[in-house]
Every structure is written in structure tokens, then in C-alpha cells.
Design a protein that fits this description.
The complex is a heterodimer of chains A (about 270) and B (about 325). Helix content of chain A is about 30%, strand content about 30%. Chain A is of the alpha/beta class and about 270 residues long. In chain A, helix 2 packs across helix 5 (about 195-200). Chain A is globular. Chain B has helices at about 15-30, 40-50, 70-85, 95-105, 215-225, 230-235, 265-270, 300-315; strands at about 1-10, 30-35, 55-60, 85-90, 110-120, 125-130, 135-140, 145-150, 165-170, 180-185, 200-205, 225-230, 255-260, 275-280, 295-300. The longest helix of chain B has 16 residues, at about 300-315. The chains are: A alpha/beta (about 270), B alpha/beta (about 325). Chains A and B meet through helix 3, helix 4, strand 9, strand 11 and strand 12 of A and helix 4, strand 5, strand 7, strand 10 and helix 7 of B.
Chain lengths: ~270, ~325
């Protein structure tokens, strides 16, 4: 079984994040492997471990698209347990919107599947920077594959995939034929941490760097020139400031209601 | 003048407020038509006419809900062609965004999500990086697809009602070919409270609730509010995951957000900092939530909330 996991190098959400440059793109200087992608990686590892692991010819390929630093997301994935890593990196990719990103990723996935097509493409439920959730669905459309998004559980039986998905008003059971594009939520599992053995093993694993030429994509079709949307203006929202703070002396609940009444919120 | 196609998925007995909002915004951009999947009841049809839909596009198949999004995107692409629409608007739910995503690829159209306002020229306003920036964005393609957050505008009927004609759109033969099937659907019991993403008021609890959401639920019912929770509370299993507000949960932008027993770590703030008014109740005076609260109470939520609930009930008689 061959699983491709999409991993993204994103600004650490623990700190303030910024837009930068003329195209108002995200400043990636303080970046990490997206927390939500760890669930996809864990799901992939569990699936191949249940099938005899690498020894039985299974593999998990961690694929990241992004500038030079994005290779760190691939390295971390290898430390956690991915079999091999692929870094799609090309200056022309900078500023790609979801449509251009899905175009490049679809081409990279076809390239990686040239000999043996992937059975499964796994992603997190969203990136923690763009937050659009568009890429998994767009990738599925471009690859002509079924998509199963926001999977809270995942089982494979031969060529069939069964997933559970929790909506606000209903919970669904979903079935699809493999290959498929699947995004998983943070409810699906508890991701493992890299241990010493994993960190040492990762040093021996291969990271392949791919350029647009390698995957046969015209640079004009990606980046800002290939994007179908443009961010025209960006303004930092003024930070919220603290208002009135009181310590409860026994009547704070009543003061709260007075505040709400004064704000016409009752 | 633009032609705007509004997608209304399963309108139910009457149109939802979010659908009325979409129709109101669409009319400010140009001629408005609707694409409707699912049964169209009389009240919903009447609302579409009152809100100025010039035509209704309906799919040739009735089983689109048996699949995940793919066939709905195929239907909408065919409806856009039939209507000659320049702009497509859908709701900003997880499913709405995915339909928009696949539709965008089918049409070669730019997709903008999380939109809160649209100018007459199609420029979309949104906030990014968890509300820390407001941006304007535009599609550079002939057709644009926008998903609009609920509570973005006050719905208003058209100056004069229309009598929209229904047009059946033939689904392409391959519409369901590469789609996942929904094989079972379990409706969740309705709480009777407003939907979290659309609620005007949210009462949210965190670690400090210590397993007891009772006082929050009573306050929420007195205020007509939805219940939210931090990840600590959902991970502890005190409340369902669908109540989670924050980076990995829902983003809410209500008129009033009452945070109880939540420290206000940055991931939680990410989901609620665009609320108009923030109230925080926490025992720990050092909690970061107090840095952004309009009204902060250092105190025990099990004392403060029931007192507030009783006072609200007293005032409302």
C-alpha cells in the first residue's frame, strides 16, 4: 500500500502571525509542521502498520510544497515515521492560491505515482495558515478521485474505504473506492511524537526535491500569475484592549447583567 | 451588470437566515437567480420570490445528497452555464466550501471563502490569520465563487417580488462517477439552542467548568445563546466536539461571547476574537483572556453565572 501524506510548513499559531510583501503572503519565518497534518501522518502510519509495515512493501511518502524551509516539515514527518520525503520547491510557486496549489500538488502526485499509483492521499482537515480547506477537494477534482473530507475514523477493507464524519446536525458513514483523497480531523487519533530511534532513523531516509520542470508544470500556471484570486489589500486588525475588570465581591453576576443591559445585549 | 447565482442546498420548510443573507447580498451585485437542490416547499419558494430570485435552477436528479459534494458541484457548474452567471454564492459551511472548491476547478473560477461583505464590483472582504488581518480579495477569472459567512448582513426582501420560473438542469453523465457515497446518516438530537456558527450570543466553557456545563446551559437558555467550548473541554469529553471554538474548531463572530473558565490561549482566541463584545469569567486574574475582554470578572463561574441567570430572568419577568 502506498500512501501520500500532504504536510505543510506553517507559521506557528502560538505566536502572532503576519502578512508580508506586495502579494500579502504569509510570513513563514517562524514555521513548524502544521499541527493538523500530524493526524494525517498518524492515520497513514497506523494503516501501513496494520498491513505489515515497510517490510511488507508498504510506504508513506510525506510530500510538502513550499520554500526552502518547508523541508523541515518533511524532516519532521520522517522522524515521526514516514518512509520517504518529497519536497516540491520552486520559486515560481510563491503566492499560489488554493487553485494553483492544487494544480502543482496534483502534478506532483501523478509524478510520484508514475510507477505505482498511490492508494490514498491523506491530508489534515485544513492548513492552520490559509484555513480555506479548499485544497483537498480541489485536488480530488483535479485527479478525478473521490474525496472524503473531515474523516473522524477511517477503515480500509480491500479496495474500499469507510469513514465516519461528524456534522453539526448529523453523523454520516461514507464509503469510497480507492484511490481517494481523504482529509482527517483532529479527533481521529493521538499522533505519536518522534523518539530518539525515529530521529536517528530519519537521517538515513531519502528526501527528494522536485522542481516544476520535474513534474511538468508550466511556471505561468502557478504562483501569483497562475492564481485565480488576488489579495488586494491587507490591514492588521487593531489589537483588542482590555476593558473593565472587576473582582467578584458577591454581586459580579448582577454587574454582568448591568453591563449587558448597557450594551443593549439583553 | 453581474448575474449572480445563489446556491441553496436543501431549503427545508422555510429558507434559513443565511440563505436570505446570500440573496440580499446577491441583489446588490446584479440580477439574482437561485440553484436549489432538494425539495422546494411553498414557504421556501415564496421567500425566493420575495427576495427577488429571477429564475430557479433545479437538478435533473433527486439523489445528490447520497454523495459527498462532487455531484452538487457538477450540478452547479451546469447551472452556471445555463444561467450565464458571473458570480456564484454559497454558504460558508464545511460542505459549502467544498462544493465551491470543486466548482472552482470545474469552471476555472477563483474561489474566496470566509467572505463577510462584497462590494458592487465583486471585491470580497474577509479576515485571515484567525482574525488578525482584514483583507480584500478578488477573483481574476471571468466567473468567481464566494462563500459568505452567516451574520454578515441583515436580510431584506426585494423592493418588488418576482415570479421565478423553474429550469431543470441536466446533470452530466459522469456527475456521480468519482464520488464518495453517504451510506448511513444519523440525525443528532436537536438541542433547541441556536446553531453555534450563526448564534448572536455564545456562552463558552473551558477547563474551569470541570465537567459541569449546567450553569452555562442555564445562562445560554436565558440569553437565547449557543453553547461553545474550548478544546480542553471537548478533549475531556465534557461536551461534543462540534461545540469546539478555536483554531481547530469553529470560528464564531457573535455580538456577544461569554467565556467562562477558559484561560484564553491563542488557539481559543483565534476562534472568537472578532466577537463584538467579549465577557470573561475566570478565577485566575492572570488569564490571558482578560487582555481582550471588554468586561472581565475575576471570580468563580459557579457563583457568577447562576447569579447572572437569575438576574436576567428577574428583569425579563
Amino acid at each position: 500500500m502506498k500512501i501520500i501524506v500532504l504536510v505543510k510548513h506553517v507559521p506557528d499559531a502560538q505566536f502572532d502571525r503576519h502578512l508580508t510583501g506586495e502579494a500579502n503572503t504569509v510570513d513563514r519565518s517562524e514555521s513548524i509542521l502544521s499541527e493538523l497534518d500530524e493526524y494525517a501522518l498518524e492515520a497513514a502510519l497506523q494503516l501501513i502498520e496494520a498491513r505489515g509495515g515497510e517490510a511488507a512493501g508498504n510506504k508513506v511518502i510525506a510530500l510538502s510544497m513550499g520554500p526552502a524551509g518547508a523541508v523541515n516539515a518533511v524532516k519532521k514527518s520522517l522522524q515521526i515515521g514516514a518512509t520517504e520525503g518529497v519536497h516540491l520547491s520552486d520559486e515560481a510557486l510563491a503566492g499560489s492560491d488554493a487553485a494553483a496549489t492544487s494544480l502543482a500538488l496534483a502534478a506532483a502526485i501523478r509524478h510520484l505515482g508514475a510507477d505505482t499509483p498511490a492508494d490514498l492521499i491523506l491530508t489534515g482537515m485544513a492548513s492552520t495558515d490559509g484555513e480555506t480547506s479548499l485544497v483537498p477537494a480541489q485536488l480530488a477534482e483535479r485527479l478525478g478521485l473521490p474525496q472524503v473530507t473531515f474523516a473522524a475514523s477511517l477503515e480500509l477493507d480491500g479496495g474500499k474505504l469507510t469513514a465516519r464524519r461528524d456534522g453539526d446536525t448529523h453523523a454520516d458513514t461514507i464509503e469510497a473506492e480507492l484511490p481517494a483523497v481523504v482529509s482527517v480531523t483532529d479527533q481521529i487519533n493521538d499522533p505519536r511524537y518522534p523518539n530518539f530511534k525515529g530521529i536517528m532513523a530519519a537521517k538515513k531516509k531519502t528526501i527528494t526535491t522536485l522542481s516544476l520542470a520535474d513534474i511538468g508544470v508550466d511556471p505561468a500556471h502557478v504562483g501569483t500569475s497562475g492564481s485565480w484570486t488576488v489579495v488586494e489589500t491587507a490591514e492588521a486588525r487593531p489589537p483588542r484592549t482590555a476593558g473593565t475588570i472587576i473582582t467578584d465581591d458577591g454581586d459580579a453576576g448582577i454587574q454582568l447583567v448591568e453591563f449587558l443591559a448597557a450594551q443593549k445585549l439583553l | 451588470m453581474a448575474k449572480v447565482l445563489v446556491f441553496i442546498d436543501n431549503p427545508g420548510q422555510a429558507l434559513k437566515k443565511s440563505s436570505l443573507e446570500l440573496l440580499t447580498i446577491a441583489r446588490s451585485l446584479g440580477e439574482t437567480v437561485a440553484a436549489v437542490n432538494g425539495e422546494l416547499h411553498d414557504a421556501a419558494a415564496a421567500a425566493l420570490a420575495a427576495y427577488g430570485a429571477e429564475a430557479l435552477y433545479v437538478p435533473s436528479a433527486a439523489d445528490l445528497d447520497a454523495y459527498l459534494v462532487g455531484p452538487k458541484a457538477a450540478f452547479l457548474a451546469a447551472a452556471v452555464d445555463a444561467a450565464g452567471a458571473d458570480v456564484v454564492m454559497a454558504e460558508n459551511s464545511a460542505e459549502g466550501k467544498e462544493i465551491a472548491a470543486r466548482l472552482g476547478i470545474r469552471l476555472g473560477a477563483g474561489v474566496i471563502t470566509d467572505v463577510v461583505a462584497v462590494d458592487a464590483d465583486g471585491t470580497a472582504h474577509k479576515s485571515v490569520l484567525a482574525g488578525s488581518y482584514t483583507t480584500t480579495a478578488k477573483a481574476t477569472t471571468p466567473v468567481s465563487v464566494l462563500t459568505v459567512k452567516s451574520n454578515s448582513i441583515t436580510p431584506e426582501p426585494a423592493a418588488s417580488a418576482t415570479a421565478p420560473e423553474s429550469v431543470t438542469v441536466q446533470l452530466p453523465a459522469d456527475a456521480t462517477a468519482a464520488s464518495a457515497r453517504v451510506t448511513a446518516r444519523n440525525e443528532k438530537p436537536a438541542s433547541g439552542r441556536p446553531d453555534l456558527a450563526e448564534a448572536r450570543i455564545v456562552v463558552a466553557g473551558g477547563r474551569g467548568v470541570d465537567g459541569n456545563f449546567g450553569p452555562l446551559e442555564e445562562l445560554a437558555d436565558a440569553l437565547g445563546a449557543a453553547i461553545g467550548a474550548s478544546r480542553a473541554a471537548t478533549d475531556a469529553g465534557w461536551i461534543g466536539h462540534d461545540a469546539q471554538v478555536g483554531q481547530t474548531g469553529k470560528t464564531v463572530s457573535p455580538q456577544l461571547y461569554i467565556s467562562a473558565g477558559i484561560s484564553g490561549a491563542i488557539q481559543q482566541k483565534a476562534g472568537m476574537q472578532t466577537a463584538k463584545v467579549i465577557v470573561a469569567v475566570n478565577k485566575d486574574a492572570e488569564s490571558p483572556i482578560f487582555e481582550i475582554a471588554d468586561f472581565g470578572i475575576v471570580g468563580d463561574l459557579f457563583q457568577v453565572l447562576p447569579q447572572a441567570t437569575a438576574e436576567i430572568k428577574k428583569r425579563k419577568g
